[in-house]
Amino acid sequence: MTGVSLPAAADSSPPRLKWTQETATICPYCAVGCGIIVGSREGRVVNTEGDPDHPINRGALCSKGSTLRQLVNSDRRITQPLYRAPGAADWQPVSWEWALDEIARRIKHTRDA
Asked: What are 62-72's pLDDT values in tens digits?
């Protein structure tokens, strides 16, 4: 016997959730640029899957890319800037405007020093 004839593999891609809005995007984890289809409903990510039409990953995702939904929906995700004053133990929420102004001020100070 020189080989075994195996039946064709079944399509293992998850069914598309038709009640979601689908947005094609690129995975942010590395420089490969895998295509991802993000399914959202009422402004919340409910599904992520590899884009089968993307030429790089052809629908497959690595372990990091396949967990994007968990990152976006995590209760531990920081969604606003935090600042810890010198000598302070706790981080305090600050506005985006304040945080960006502070970053610009420090960069200018370093540049001009």
From this structure: 988 888 888 88
